[in-house]
Design a protein that fits this description.
Elements (H helix, E strand, L loop, with lengths): L2 H14 L4 H19 L12 H16 L6 H4 L6 H9 L1
Helix pairs in contact: 1-2, 1-3
Length: 93
């Protein structure tokens, strides 16, 4: 994680501790970013309900997460654990 990405995440964490509509949206985003399956999903249209600087920090967090996932791991991260090799094995069985 770059220093800019870390700073954006730290700002989001601080915002999420408040009691405002924007802080609720940020908290939902952080919880979904951490574990959407257990903490609920996140509605991308929430970006329209926060200030531009907050939306920029949220997008920075998304880009940081995507940039740190090796392409080789993407199939195992899919909800149904799909991969071409696994799919071929299942069809052959």
């Amino acid at each position: 994680m770059t220093p800019d990405e870390k700073a954006a995440l730290e700002r989001l964490i601080e915002i999420s501790k408040s009691e405002t509509g924007q802080s609720r949206r940020v908290a939902d985003f952080l919880l979904a970013w951490w574990n959407a399956g257990d903490c609920g999903g996140w509605d991308p249209t929430d970006l329209w309900g926060v200030d531009a600087a907050i939306a920029d920090d949220m997008m920075t967090a998304i880009r940081a997460r995507i940039a740190n996932i090796p392409v080789s791991r993407l199939p195992e991260l899919l909800p149904w654990n799909w991969s071409p090799a696994r799919n071929a094995r299942q069809e052959a069985a």
